[in-house]
Each structure stands twice: as structure tokens, then as C-alpha cells.
Amino acid sequence: MPTDTGAQPAPGDGHRLWGGRFSVPPAPALEELNRSLPVDRRLWREDIQGSRAWVLALARAEVLSQAEARVLDAGLMRVADRIEAGAAEGAADEDIHTLVERLLYDEVGEVAGKLHTGRSRNDQVATDARLWAMQAGARLQAELRALCAALADRAETVIDLLIPAYTHLRRAQPVRVAHWLLAHFWALDRDRARLGDALQRVATLPLGSGAIAGCAFGIDRTLLKDVLGFERISENSMDAVGDRDWVVELVFVAALIGTHLSRLAEDLIVYSSEEFGFVRLPEAYTTGSSLMPQKRNPDGLELARGKAARLIGDVAAALTLLKGLPSGYNKDMQEDKELLFGALDTLFNVIPATRETVAGLAFDESALARAVDDDGLLATDLADELVRRGVPFREAHGAVGRLLRLADERRVRLAELPDEAWSQAHPKFLAGGRPHPSPEASVESRAVPGGTARGAVEAQLAAARAALASGGHGG
Ligand code: ARG
Q1: Among 51, 168, 257, 471, which is least packed by CB within 10 angstroms?
Q2: How far apart are CA 120 and CA 211, in angstroms?
Q3: pTM reported for the whole predicted model
């Protein structure tokens, strides 16, 4: 028979938010599993902020006297000072909510027991986590914007430099270096727009939802929303405490950003290799080898590429966490914060290093010039020229193929092929003069919006600047 031993001391301090119903304290192994303080302690600011707003709402609803509210509010501020000074260090409390309440008892005594009136940790933690995500999301937007700005700035300085564009990692057609950089810009710009969209939904206030059924005291949720800086209040208490779809969205956006960064990183790793040599990475963003003295490795970019793996895994974890859960709060949801914090922390690591790497790229103009001096890159332009001379494109395609084969067989450049070979490939090559394609003419001929002509790329840069001035163009 279990005997009622009264309040059981928790390891360290003895404060618990529950226990009356229990005759024995939780087993140490459960305690260890259940504790979330090591993860959620970083929500302490939001927890205090939410609690101060709750005190205000309880006072307005006359659940607390003005005097009690003043004592609790001042006490919460002192708790903040104590946590700032390290009071959470090595604390044994179950979670951040328990720690704050224990310290509040320390500061103000029994009146601390009134703070939790009408509030559950379920609506409390959902509020804290959303508040944290609103802040961190704004920071992520700023970081992403700075990376996009670095790409646009770098693009602006290399508008005249050409580089082969690749499909299947085989040389395809020449483009401006700026055009390639801006391709990465737009992918990240859409991520900015996605993030902004997801953050709108984060700004929904759960507080006042209680454990699942709402609050039996007449607290003013609109006041809470305004004081805490939310955009709207949740419409349904069960939904407010029982969903984490907003976490899934943020983790997904983080994974997509990570994926885009991994592709930028991969381009830079390849283009800075000895084999390509198009660009030198800033020395401060490369590392040496412990054995091979010559090495300058792109570790930062490799990690940008590698970190995407975990971000992608986090999306599956976040979705799986929710899948099949019965409605309302379930303890499984405690796992949401590790996913959310981990994803954003990763990006706060990766984005600045990537931004600085982009800002410090030094392009090797002669290596780029050698790479674009390739007849194959201009094959499409030759076919286009035949089209202008009245040849159907499919026939022109075949003719250029034959011409390239002839040059291959004779081991010469196209320009060195005699007229006889050109007319053998297609008589129209000579009618109207032998074409003299060049990489410059090739990029200039693509003057459509979104193309590679100088004017088109300048217009693209202007659009990029406009997108930077807004929350992301999303196009
Ligand atoms: N640490 C918990 C979490 O992060 C707080 C909510 C606890 N709620 C509960 N009913 N036990 O989800």
C-alpha cells in the first residue's frame, strides 16, 4: 500500500507544479526522461514576459487585487534578474515554468501560488515557444536578407564576366556570373517570402486556452495579444494547445533554406576546385589539412552542405511527432522545441559564414575566359543563326551537330574548319556569310526578361534590389 508521504522533494529544490494526487514521487528514471529544463530554459525571457502579461490580465479580471498584481510583477522582474545572473545553471526543476514559479515563491512567498490561476503549462508553453519563434524568425529574416544582399552586391560587380552554365554538370551555354549568382538569390528570396508567410501564422496567441477548454476567468485575450505583440488570438482552445503545425512550417522553411544553401555551397566547392579554378574562396573561410601542407579546404561550405541533412531529417521528425496524436496536448509535443531550436540555431551558424564567403569571392577572369572559349557552348547560337536564315530548328540542330563532329574528327576549332566543311554540314552556313559566334554575342542575344543580356540582367538586379527592400519578392 502506498502511504501518503505528503509533498515530495524534487531533486535539488522541492518545488513541483503538481503532486497532490500522488502518494509517491516520480521515479528517478521518469524524472530524467520527463525533464525538459535543459532544452526549454532558453525560453525564460518569454516565460517571464508571458507571466507578466498574465498577471495584468488576472488583475483586470479582478482575480488578483492591484496590490497582489504589483507584488507578482515586481517579483517576476526579480526572477528575471536572478535567471540572468545564472539561477538556471544546474537547476534540477522539471521545466522552465517550474523554475520560474519556484524562484517567484522565493521572491514573493505564498502569493506566487496565485499566478497559475486559469493558466496551464499547455497554453503557457505554446505561448512561450511562439514568442521565441517570433523573435528568432525576425532574426532569421534579417540574416537571410543579408545573405541575399551579399549575393546581389557580388552580382553587381561581375556583370561583365561570363561563366559556363551547366546542365548535367556538362557545359551548356555561357551566362553572366551575375546571372548565376542571382539564380541563388531568387531561391533564397522565395525562402524569405515563405518565412514571412509562416511567421504570420506563428503570431497567433494561445494564452487563455488553459489546459484544453479555455479559461473560466474573464481575462481579456485581446489585451494579452496586444501586450505580448501577437497579431491575433486563437479561435479554438483545443487547437491552440494541441497543434504544432507552425513548428512544422518553420522547420520546413529552415530545411528548404538549408537545401538552397547546400546547392550554393556545392557550386562554390566545385567552381573553386583546382579542376575548375573559376573562383578563389576567401582564405579566412577555408581550412588546412593536418597532413597535406598544400590544402585549402572549403570546410565551411562543406558544412553548409552537410548541415542540410539534419534540417531535412527534422522536417520528418516534426511531422511524425504530430502524426496520429489524439487531439489536445500530448507530452510528445515537448519534443517540438529541440527541433525548432536546432533548426534555427543551425541556420544562424551557416548563413553568416556563407554570406561572408560570398562577399569575399575572388573570380579568376582568365580561368573563366578560358572556360567560356568553348565551341560547344555556342552550338545553340549556331543553330539559332540557321533558324534566322530560314532553316527549321530541328534541321539546324542536326547541322550544328554534324559541324561539331567534323571539327572533332579533324581535331580543330570551328573557326579553323574550311568553308567546304561548313557547307557540308549545311549550305545555309555560307549563305549570308560564315557565322562568327562569340560568348559575348551569345549572352547579349538573350534579351528576354529573365535572360542573360546586359539589359536583362540589369533589370533583374533592379528587381532583386526591390525584393530586398520588401519582405521577399517570392517570384
Ligand atoms: N515541458 C512541457 C512542454 O514543453 C510543458 C507543458 C507540460 N504540460 C503538461 N501537461 N505536462 O511541452
Answers
A1: 168
A2: 5
A3: 0.93
